[in-house]
Amino acid sequence: MDIRFFAYILLIVSVMGYFIPVENKLNTNDSLDIPLVVFDKPLMYTLDEKNVSKIIDATHAVRYKNRDEMYDATITLKNSKPEENYNFEELKAEVIIKKADDITLRKNVFYKRDDFVDLKTDELFYNTKTKIAYNSKPYEGNYYKHYIKGTNLYLDGIKDNMKSKNVHFEVEMKNKK
Fold it and tell me: How far apart are CA 23 and CA 73, in angstroms?
């Protein structure tokens, strides 16, 4: 009799458990952005029809679903269009985040274009398609071997113009006597 009573109780509890609604909770681990690939000391070359167009060198690179992150990285973009009057652009930073054509550079950023522009700042945003670099942080550097510093940089690489706020520009003049 006790076994039959126990079996009936188990049957009633299981039927009641079947009809009780269960709420599916989203696990916080499911929503995390998990890296797809992690590289140590990557060196990547991008080739086009004529030459090497891009070189990426970093200590670590992580590829996510919608972005790439590089650490202690250098990106060298070489010019392949003869109508543009520069040879290469170099972007260095401790942290580089690339989403499609937009590159965000953070911590100890260094931007160099040939031998006529080099800038140091803490943050820089750059678009590889439009060749526009901008930031809202202070920067300093050299423009044709003349010292420049300021804030809110806007540098258009296609139209070859530069805008800034709070600019201090020192022209190096040699006395010819």
Answer: 46
